[in-house]
Specification:
With 299 residues, the protein is α/β, with parallel strands linked by helices. The chain is built from 10 helices and 12 strands. The longest helix has 28 residues.
């Protein structure tokens, strides 16, 4: 099952519906969250209106307060991160068969999204045994990745913004990882991540400041992509339950998937992942006040 088009997107940056061919399935794309410079009304809503009846299915596992509004529309399969840690495990052969033929797959441009797209194109079957577990491990940062999953994860940290590379990676997964040329390309990209990983560890060692239950790191002066922000946040969580990064534009908070913390509720953000939230840098003082109110930062 191969659609005419595979399109990569993010919740804040969706393609123009007029550029999408035929019936469309959307995978692992969260509804845009208010409070992040975008919103459902500005981004997701117009996208849905533009697609109209051409939307065949929307499958996602990120929290959003508007999920109940789509409960009666059979095209939408929506849940929270607590219910499904990753999107691919939500996709079944029955779902794909029920949806019928599609012409375009729009998926999130990350590990979870690529694996969801590959599984959909394979009729709801994993591209390799344990692929669903790998997607869950990456998206929740819990559990242990397989060797193949770890290779793809590291490669995407280097080439994750190259749509051509992402397309080849999905094709490689759909082909059961049998193409040695693409496999070699993925391995080479993964190897290039070593330098970024080391730089990230160096920054974590030099810059994290722990106060109460929060490890805070300011990377305002660093160049874009000089460090791996996801890895930097995880390294912060080894120092304190909550890690916070400030860069030129944003304040990003993160905690363990099973921490029970809900930064969405704490900061009034409408949707996304409860344990990882970014807000504009202008809200830094508010972030500090909220964390102090919860007893996570000293008052």
């Amino acid at each position: 099952m191969t659609p005419a088009h595979l399109v990569f997107a993010t919740p804040r940056k969706l393609p123009r519906p007029s550029t999408l061919v035929g019936r469309v399935v959307v995978l692992d794309i969260a509804f845009a969250a208010a409070g992040t410079g975008s919103s459902f009304e500005k981004v997701t809503g117009p996208f849905l209106a533009g697609l109209g009846e051409r939307l065949a299915a929307w499958v996602d596992h990120h929290d959003h307060n508007l999920h109940p509004s789509f409960r009666d529309d059979p095209r939408f399969t929506l849940c929270t991160k607590a219910v499904h840690g990753a999107c691919p495990e939500m996709i079944t052969p029955e779902m794909v068969a029920r949806t019928g033929p599609v012409d375009t797959v729009v998926c999130h441009n990350d590990f979870d999204g690529l694996y969801a797209a590959a599984k959909w194109l394979l009729g709801g079957v994993e591209p390799y045994p344990g692929a669903d577990d790998d997607a869950r491990a990456v998206d929740t940062r819990t559990g242990t990745l397989s060797a193949r999953g770890a290779l793809v994860d590291r490669a995407l940290r280097i080439e994750g913004r190259d749509d051509a590379f992402l397309g080849r990676a999905v094709a490689w997964l759909v082909g059961r990882a049998a193409d040695p040329q693409v496999g070699g390309e993925i391995a080479a990209a993964a190897a290039r991540y070593d330098a970024t990983e080391q730089r990230t560890r160096d920054v974590a060692g030099d810059r994290y400041v722990v106060s109460g239950s929060v490890a805070w790191c300011d990377i305002t002066d660093l160049k874009p992509r000089e460090v791996d922000k996801t890895e930097l946040l995880l390294l912060g969580q080894k120092r304190a339950p909550v890690s916070v990064l400030t860069d030129e534009q944003n304040v990003t908070l993160a905690a363990a998937f099973d921490s029970g913390l809900d930064f969405l509720a704490m900061l009034g953000v409408a949707g996304g992942m409860p344990t990882r939230v970014s807000v504009p840098r202008s809200r830094e003082a508010e972030v500090r006040a909220v964390l102090a109110k919860r007893g996570l930062l000293p008052t």
